[in-house]
Amino acid sequence: MKFLQQNGELHNETVGLKLLSFSDTQESLKALSFEIERKERKHPLVLVSNLKANNKPVINPQKLQEQLLGLAQVVYSDEEINSWEMESTLGRKYSAWDGAVNIIYPSFNGNDCHTKLFPKQI
To answer: d(Cα 108, Cα 80) in Å, to the nearest integer?
Structure first.
């Protein structure tokens, strides 16, 4: 996919053309919540969190987005995120912290979105 992206023109609505970022503000977290719950969303969101120890992700979000181009949208923040605020706004089911990666699938039939949480490995 990276070859196609670099050597051709992908449609501007192709999922994952660029990394989606959010910040540690109530407005940004609410916007992420709206994107998670948006009924028209047909692709998974992959929420990548930072380790508490060094505020860096376990996996490179940019490289992950390159691998998932056309399949999923990677969501990441290079800021330190208050996990309590994130959980308060998004809910525990849709949050990720301390190096975890959470895949948030689109909703089917108007139900809650299914998720798959991958905690950091020790």
So the answer is: 32
What average pLDDT does the segment 46-62 reach? 92
DSSP 8-state symbol, 87: H
- For residue 109, what pLDDT band results from cuts at 50, 70 and 90? confident
Which residue has 């959470």 as its token pair?
102
Cβ–Cβ < 8 Å for 9, 62: no
- Say how far apart CA 15 and CA 90 lie, in whole Å: 22
Question: Cβ(61)–Cβ(19) under 8 Å?
Answer: yes
pLDDT of 19 > 60? The answer is: yes
DSSP conformational letter for 10: -
Are the beta carbons of 18 and 65 closer than 8 angstroms? Answer: yes
Reference 102, options 110, 90, 88; nearest CA is: 90
